């Protein structure tokens, strides 16, 4: 269950001309601009949800802990497509269409299974324009911010997993 909403417009021009640019039209360089996100407690990671190229692109240190990954290289190397169910494939396609194409912000509560352990997380998916490397064109990816929540009982976790 989630909701999608259009990205708000911000006046980035610093004047009163009424010129507005999308909050997500700025272009960021993955090697220079995202390191500051390692300073925050919230897990933040970048994902591409294109059907033929669904993959992790980047993560801050909090996301590496959430996903139980020892390094950024291990995180990026994670196979997130080969064992996904039809329901998860549909979720990924919806996120791609809403966020990467439609440029909306999507908020969902999901249960993920890093290293096979259930973690329920409140997630915000938002578009971000990135240059991954000097030899690639800028593209829109999904910046995911995750805040884990506590689920009290093991039976509840198993019930959730049975519906995914």
From TrEMBL:
Composition bias type Polar residues, residue spans: 12-22
Region span, Disordered: 1-22
Name of protein: PAS domain-containing protein
Organism from which the protein derives: Cryptomonas curvata
């Amino acid at each position: 269950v989630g909701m999608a909403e259009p990205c708000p417009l911000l006046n980035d021009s610093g004047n009163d001309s009424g010129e507005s640019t999308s909050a997500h039209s700025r272009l960021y360089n993955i090697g220079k601009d995202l390191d500051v996100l390692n300073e925050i407690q919230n897990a933040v990671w970048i994902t591409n949800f294109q059907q033929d190229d669904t993959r992790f692109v980047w993560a801050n240190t909090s996301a590496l802990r959430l996903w139980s990954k020892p390094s950024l290289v291990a995180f990026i190397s994670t196979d997130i497509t080969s064992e996904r169910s039809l329901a998860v494939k549909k979720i990924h396609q919806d996120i791609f269409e809403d966020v990467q194409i439609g440029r909306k912000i999507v908020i969902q509560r999901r249960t993920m299974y890093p290293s096979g352990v259930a973690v329920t997380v409140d997630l915000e998916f938002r578009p971000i324009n990135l240059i991954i490397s000097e030899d690639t064109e800028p593209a829109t990816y999904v910046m995911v911010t995750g805040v884990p929540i506590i689920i009290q009982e093991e039976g509840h976790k198993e019930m959730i997993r049975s519906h995914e």
